């Protein structure tokens, strides 16, 4: 009985999932980071908000099917995420951008064999699923830094994360 229980736990740990970003934030390379506004005094504040949470795998029918088949039945789910970035200076909005991203979610151990890691990959772990929130936040900040207006000093910029 103990072996059967351990085998079942091992199978559950092999489920696996992968997520990829498409849409407005596709192919955005995250190579620069901005300090949080609580960590450093800054003149410019970047506010990032997104309308989603983490993907725990059982949040949709595809993840649930994969969960109950122990990851042996590969499934796919597409969701959309809206993100908004604003840059403020002394209470005035200097820059605003909204992005719509597609999150391609692949559940099941068989996908792990065929899906390569790319700049559009989202991190995932067995405890929390696909890390959509962090991935979209990082890409939204990176895209904003690429399109930063000349009037904004990047060295005087901090970031605050909000939830929609």
Structural write-up:
- This protein is 25% helix and 35% strand.
- The chain is an alpha+beta fold.
- The strands form two sheets. Strands 5-1-4-3-2-8 form a six-stranded mixed sheet.
Short description:
By secondary structure, the chain is of the alpha+beta class.
Strand count: 8
Principal-axis shape equals elongated
> In what order do the strands lie side by side in the largest sheet?
5-1-4-3-2-8
Which segments are poorly predicted (pLDDT under 50) over 5 or more consecutive residues? none
**Element pattern in H and E:** HEEHEEHEEEHE
Treating each run of at least 4 consecutive H or I residues as one helix, how many helices? 4
Radius of gyration: 19 Å
Strand content: 35-45%
Give a short account of the largest sheet.
Answer: 6 strands, mixed
Helix percentage: 25-40%
Q: Please, what is the average pLDDT? A: 84
Q: Kindly, what is the distance between the CA atoms of the first and last residues, rounded to a whole number of angstroms?
A: 47 Å
Helix/strand structural class: alpha+beta
